[in-house]
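## Example record

The block below lists the input lines for one assembly entry, exactly as stored, with component labels intact.
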Amino acid sequence: MEWETVIGLEIHAQLATKSKIFSGASTTFGAEPNTQACAIDLAMPGVLPVLNKEAVSMAVKFGLGANAAIASRSVFARKNYFYPDLPKGYQISQYELPIVGHGYLDIQLEDGSVKRIHITRAHLEEDAGKSLHEDFQGMTGVDLNRAGTPLLEIVSEPDMRSAKEAVAYLKTVHTLVKYLGICDGNMQEGSFRCDANVSVRPKGETKFGTRAELKNINSFRFVERAINYEVERQIALLESGGTVIQETRLYDPNKNETRSMRSKEEANDYRYFPDPDLLPLVIDEAFINNIKANLPELPEQKRQRFIDQYELSTYDASVLVSSKEMANFYEEVVRAANQPKLAANWIGSELLGALNKDDLDITESPVSAVQLGKLISRIADNTISGKIAKTIFEALWNQEGDVDDIIEKRGLKQVSDTGAIEKLIDEIIAANPGQVAEYRSGKDKLFGYFVGQAMKASGGKLNPSQLNELLKKKLAG
Amino acid sequence: MHRKTLAELATDLNNKTISSVELTQHYLERIHQWDKKLNCFITIAEEQAMQAAKHADALRSQGKATALTGIPIAQKDIFCTDGIKTTCGSKILDNFIAPYNATVVEKLNHAGMVTLGKTNMDEFAMGSSNETSYFGPVKNPWHLDCVPGGSSGGSAAAVAAHLTPAATGTDTGGSIRQPAALCGITGVKPTYGRVSRYGMIAYASSLDQGGPMAKTVEDTALLLQAMAGFDERDSTSIDKPVPNYAATLNDSIQGIRIGLPKEYFSDALDPQIAHAIESAVKEYEKLGAVIQEISLPHTHLAAPVYYVIAPAECSSNLARYDGVRYGYRCSDPVDLQDMYKRSRSEGFGSEVKRRIMVGTYVLSAGYYDAYYLKAQKIRRLIRDDFTAAFKNVDVILCPTSPTPAFKFGEKTSNPISMYLSDLYTIAVNLAGLPAVSLPAGMVNQLPIGMQLIGNLFEEAKLLNIAHWYQKVTDWHTHSPEEFK
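Predicted structure tokens for the full assembly:
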């Protein structure tokens, strides 16, 4: 039987506010345990939450960036459950009335097509602390530094049909929140994480299958692997006559498998109810309009601008706007060289290839945008050939200095002097009488051989088009 | 000296006929002398009190005193006090010392008041008789076999026995007004949001409100002045200026309209109390008030609604007492579940457990709509009753409690009869209104209280009307013989 995969994602993005969502404590990552937890984060008796306005602004930004409705009135609710790293015994979240309603994001698929993924809602809530099970011999340590960090939980519709689509959507959201400056997107530190609801159904079936919720998938690669593993597990189960049960499953990246964590029956009754300590959150048009007026250029808009302004292909533009830093880098190169297409090619192939190989981010590139721009300028003004440029790029990667210095020092300047090229060609013709005769008797393919000889003799420095032209003339006799 | 009102003491301090140190010493001595009998205090903060008194005297000599500077006060043990134990009447917080002051405490400290100690109360303010306190019941100074009311029973009894000139209380369903009535003192429950709840240990957040307890309406006006006001640390506090309550106390009440809710004068009311209230109504008529009968048709639903909403909120509010970070932790827990279960089973008393269980139940999936949501809808109807009534009257007058102080143990075996002792006070919290209870007679040598209910944020008018009663009667000057 042919199966169809159905995936919905719940993404938790930590909002990049300076202080926590309901207290004044700092949100900086990596401090000594419990040094960034105030009386409110510790849930001392009698303390009360006060909403951080910045977190609200950030949620609104997301809503605007995701083409979503912003609720004029939303309500904070208590989600009640006991856990040592949940100090109040409840998490303040939004339940029935979230701040962000229906929206959508368009994702680019590998075949170049575009798919619209619908967003059900996004709501504000507070993060819990961390339980530390190591180093405490039979006991558990509790670090409440993270407790109260603002989170935006972004819930998608079950619109994705493959692990690849899920990753593409996740990357799109990741790019968006970073563009908006509302989340640092650091998946390793947990500031951007996701749970995946995965089910399968026979192709053509309209009803959804029973879903499993996958937790603990904290990298793009793991999302893809975890979903693929889970899809295979469910199909194998169904094909052998079993049934999928609704449950929460934990992904183990070391074993690349998912394991049952708890079934629906074991799930908590969270006893949600509106938090009486917080008034309903009322957002007026002026507040939204002010944020709208100050929104940065978003990935979608930037891609379209790159296509229009720099005459790039959709693919190239998509690659370049995949992060704000990359797009900025590109535009800096363009400013330095005024060669938009060449710049796109160089970043897309040489630079990204090298960065990926060394697992570096664009912000960590050893080759600066200014140097890359200069390099491209030297190609454009025929100082060097494209081939020589690759050598220079390697030198730049190895921090050997300025483009012009490298050209100078290594004597890589392209030879465009007709006399010098003709002299070289004469020498090659003289040294290869047999090949010259064969060529002249009609074996055209040998032309490449002469080009190769000339380039070899010159160290690759000859102007290629000039060489072609002169060589043709000389060989013609 | 201890028979004097707060206003009189302020005059004495101003005239330098007495110092704050002397005054504080006097009250501390009275506490040492009498509190073994009454059990009003959980903690006596002698050292801190004397220090504060010295500081107050210094301020006064520098001309920096306010009306309240140097006057002693007792804090209900529900208000967090920096460096002084705050138990909330519970074993689970018996070892808890807050590193911060409640806003109310901070404000009263700022006004120069001297905290004598922390008063006994029903555990987590859940009770109407002070019998649920982990620290033992408070005795009613008028009759030591009787309850002082609750939950602010320690505060009420301490003021009635002149162990302090004033005290703070909190009122979730009548916890300031009912003990004030049963002990023969004056207590004010302000409009919800008028006084900050920050640092005031939560029982039912949407109903809790702190307020003053003292001998007279005038005293409570002075105290409320210092306690009230917007607090950015409490999102439910209201950003509205605080009027000068004392300034309008003597304004004429000629023509003022007083409503008597017919539902409150039913057969359930002790006829002697009904009689006393009728006398009070006559006093107001003499003062030129216009009396009219009104109807609050949803009155009979107030208690059931309250006993859904308050437990629901409490079940969540009290989840933080888990033995993890502070407070009582059971000995030698074998695992997390064991620690939770035993810490909470051993740390909470039975009334608290009863309400946590009821609250957990009414919020559960499948019951939420039938109980919690329904209760919230009825709560709105109850509020609408009052809104409609206040279109025609300035204040509503009724008894504070259906009976005078009852005997210890009389109602402990029957929670429902205990819950009904808050019959006249509960609806006020559900509607968020301000109300005052003041002494209005004696029944069987026990004081009884009259309640005046005002419209939202009309504390000034309410206190003005209440003050006039004390200008023309002397019930508020009666004192239990033994503690005179």
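Chain B is about 40% helix and 15% strand. The mean pLDDT of chain B is 96.
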